[in-house]
Specification:
This is Putative sensory transduction regulator. InterPro entries: TY-Chap_C, TY-Chap_M, TY-Chap_N. Pfam families: Chap-C, TY-Chap1, TY-Chap3. There is one protein chain. With 423 residues, this protein is α+β, with helices and mostly antiparallel strands. The protein contains 12 helices and 14 strands. The longest helix has 31 residues.
Length: 423
Amino acid sequence: MRDFEDATEASWSRFTRRLTTFLQDEILDASPVRLLWSGEYRLDALMTFGWEEPVVDVVMDADAAGSDTESVRESMRALGWDEDDDVYYFAVELDGVENLVSLAVGALRTVIGVAHPALLDVDGGPAAIAALRVPTPTIAAMGATVRAEAADEPIAVVPHDRDHLLQLVDDALTPVFGHAPIKDHDGDIPVRSEGARVFVSVPATDPAVDLVGLVVADVQDRLAALRAVAILNRNSRYVCFFLQGDSVLARLHLPASPFVPSHVRRMLALMLEVLAEVPEDLAERTGGRRAVDVTDLDDEADGGPGTAQESFADEPGSDQENEELPHELMMLLQLDPEGTGAVEPEVAAAVCHHDSELILSLIRQCEQEEIAWSTAAEAAEQSGDADEIGACRREAAGWDSTIALLRTALRHVAESLPRRPSR
């Protein structure tokens, strides 16, 4: 949970920087920019940023927060907003834009309740959309970027049956492609993007929409893949990664009763964003092939070109590297590969040079591994892969056994220390 909170804070920081830069550099030549949110089926504008020499201003309707209560008014005043009739506003000269953005983001998060900038949409022309990099569901088609919007579509619909839901999904994604979605031989809608292949489908068992993405195919090292899946799931709240057969897959399950068209487009954009941030060397580390290198998928259906969706991440790659284990830990694992307790505490202490700091460090590292494999087992339970569940649980148990060994080694080191003479 902490990793998700850190990632959310990082996303808000990036959004804040980009909004500040846009208002400082582009607002003079731009039309008013509106931030919108479709949360709770609302499509109204949350805030509008404008320029009227010599000031930049932001305006928010009093009902944008959902209710014009005294507590809302107190919160807005505490943030520093001014109030006039049915609107809140704040105006600054260009050198005060950072303060204005701070107030705006504070209201979005604490008053309106926007959990993540991915839930925001931007209306204000291509320059504003490109500068702010808000992940509105867009798709590049023949060199032109088409906004995935449908002006006449209903906000929410309760599907009568699966056929009705299939049609609703087609209608929701038609503005994304610019035409009715082309399906593969399984009836799924393939969406291609750099670094990812996502298939949109409707399960036969319940009213829902499944988004499944291929991350790595033809995996050769299953243990490396299971470990990578566990690490990926640490930092993913909505998307579940799992190993099925020889493929690393990602899945997002979206309930669809009622069915909300904009939610499908937003979740598709989010899915593509998450897959784009998967470490580029994952295929190499697992002995497999990247999704973009699996050319046979391209022959299944011509799903159109990839999306114009941009990731919130400023830099490619990730810090989730599969670092080599310390030499001392590798020795202990080789001495007791089955985790049966075959290594005596004094032997483990000797391997660790009777260094209590090193032993503590190894315990922490083993605890991280045990947590990762336990998390992978929980993710495997969702996919129903019995072999994967068993493998993850065995790995978690092995690391737990190593932790116990290291703790006995630490006790051995502590007991062998010379005692202080009593006074």
